[in-house]
């Protein structure tokens, strides 16, 4: 790798080098990444040099900026860190932004918030815009605007020959379609240009109750989501914070007037006994504070299921303790997500997403978490379709679960066309 060291401005680390062990770790510390080397790119030209080196030496390249979504399927590859590609340019008049591959959502939201604009952000500000969007991007405003991938105007890429280029719907319709939600293994993305959306008024926050209120909160969640407009997004959460009694919460955002939001969420006010109520008019930059997800890596195990309805949910989720899970969440989907997207992410006919999470600090705890998640999923099997959004896949699951059969076949053909040597490795490859 000494040749590559001389060709790039960034840094190359091999096993035994200072910092290699930290550099190869993903966000989820329960996932091992037995990579050949870690390269920290300083520029898009560095990315091109890495691709040419990998092509000439028979290696593969797995891009990661923040390390989210890692599956561990990276044995012997060059792990490409793109976190230093962190340029942000906002054009408020055109309602567009250009963001480098290393830009995290918190930074973009801070940049667009003063203009009353937003992107289709998820719950975490620590996730990169590019990685999230390449996997479709299922977030707070997806009921109104669909997958985040729908908002992409252009990709700046390095292709499998190590050439830099720009991909749009006009320049290469097939590749553009695949990169919008197909997982990103068709070219290495160094920056994306995306449409921003108006958010002159935003209301949202979390309401928290003792766990014994869970039946009432779930009933209110069902009532609200039965008629919710697309501007309203509501999530139901069962929570078990370490060192604290179990609780139940509702997280919500509304793209509109606060008075309208309070009226739509009125069933929550009938419950009473709330521990806290953080609902308020918010700047877009405050979106990550609603769920306050961890901003540092940790070891965990998650599982997601798309549900056709909630008829069996109360009897399953509220029957018995949450332990050893830390959280069980129901996200209301529907709206624009249920309509064709024109992207590889397709659409989601299912109106709800179940997401379960627990720590995996040691093998025994990981096994207990996995068993509990499996038990819940098994009891909800009649409502679960088996499909998973790409960014909710977990290690051991395959990309086939995220795509319709025709779209999967098209993605595989595009992979063969644009990367016949399988030079690029996504977290969950469609090609393997």
UniProtKB/TrEMBL annotation:
GO molecular function: FAD binding; oxidoreductase activity
Cofactor names: FAD
PROSITE patterns documented for this protein: FAD_PCMH
Superkingdom, natural source: Bacteria
SUPFAM superfamilies reported in the protein's UniProt record: FAD-binding/transporter-associated domain-like (SSF56176)
Keyword Iron among record annotations: no
Record domain FAD-binding PCMH-type: where: 31-199
Keywords of this entry: FAD, Flavoprotein, Oxidoreductase
UniProt entry tagged with the keyword Flavoprotein: yes
Matching PANTHER family: BINDING OXIDOREDUCTASE, PUTATIVE (AFU_ORTHOLOGUE AFUA_1G17690)-RELATED, FAD-BINDING PCMH-TYPE DOMAIN-CONTAINING PROTEIN
Family: Belongs to the oxygen-dependent FAD-linked oxidoreductase family.
Protein name as annotated: FAD-binding oxidoreductase
Species whose genome carries this gene: Bailinhaonella thermotolerans
């Amino acid at each position: 790798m000494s040749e590559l060291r001389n060709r790039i401005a960034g840094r190359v680390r091999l096993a035994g080098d200072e910092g290699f062990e930290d550099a190869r770790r993903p966000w989820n510390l329960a996932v091992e990444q037995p990579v050949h080397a870690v390269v920290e790119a300083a520029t898009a030209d560095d990315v091109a040099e890495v691709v040419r080196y990998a092509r000439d030496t028979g290696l593969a390249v797995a891009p990661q900026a923040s390390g989210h979504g890692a599956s561990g399927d990276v044995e012997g590859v060059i792990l490409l860190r793109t976190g230093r590609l962190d340029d942000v340019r906002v054009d408020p008049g055109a309602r567009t932004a250009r963001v480098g591959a290393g830009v995290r959502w918190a930074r973009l939201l801070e940049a667009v918030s003063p203009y009353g604009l937003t992107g289709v952000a998820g719950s975490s500000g620590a996730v990169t815009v590019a990685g999230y969007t390449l996997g479709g991007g299922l977030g707070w405003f997806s009921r109104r605007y669909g997958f985040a991938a729908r908002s992409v105007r252009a990709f700046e890429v390095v292709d499998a020959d190590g050439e830099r280029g720009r991909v749009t719907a006009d320049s290469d319709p097939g590749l553009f379609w695949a990169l919008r939600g197909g997982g990103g293994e068709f070219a290495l993305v160094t920056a994306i240009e995306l449409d921003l959306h108006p958010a002159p008024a935003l209301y949202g926050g979390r309401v928290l109750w003792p766990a014994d209120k869970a039946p009432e909160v779930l009933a209110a969640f069902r009532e609200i989501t039965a008629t919710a407009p697309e501007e309203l997004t509501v999530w139901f959460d069962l929570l078990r914070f370490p060192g604290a009694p179990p609780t139940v919460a509702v997280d919500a955002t509304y793209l509109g007037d606060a008075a309208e939001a309070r009226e739509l969420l009125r069933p929550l006010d009938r419950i009473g006994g709330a521990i806290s109520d953080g609902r308020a008019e918010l700047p877009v930059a405050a979106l990550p504070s609603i769920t306050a997800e961890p901003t540092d890596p940790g070891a965990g195990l998650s599982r997601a299921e798309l549900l056709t309805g909630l008829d069996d949910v109360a009897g399953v989720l509220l029957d018995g303790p949450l332990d050893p899970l830390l959280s069980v969440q129901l996200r209301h989907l529907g709206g624009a997500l249920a309509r064709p997207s024109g992207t590889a992410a397709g659409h989601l006919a299912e109106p709800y997403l179940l997401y379960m999470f627990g720590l995996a600090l040691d093998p025994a705890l990981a096994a207990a978490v996995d068993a509990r998640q499996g038990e819940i999923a098994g009891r909800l099997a009649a409502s679960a379709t088996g499909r998973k959004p790409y960014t909710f896949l977990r290690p051991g699951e395959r990309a086939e679960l995220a795509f319709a059969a025709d779209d999967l076949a098209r993605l595989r053909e595009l992979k063969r066309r644009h990367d016949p040597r399988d030079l690029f490795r996504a977290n969950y490859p469609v090609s393997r």
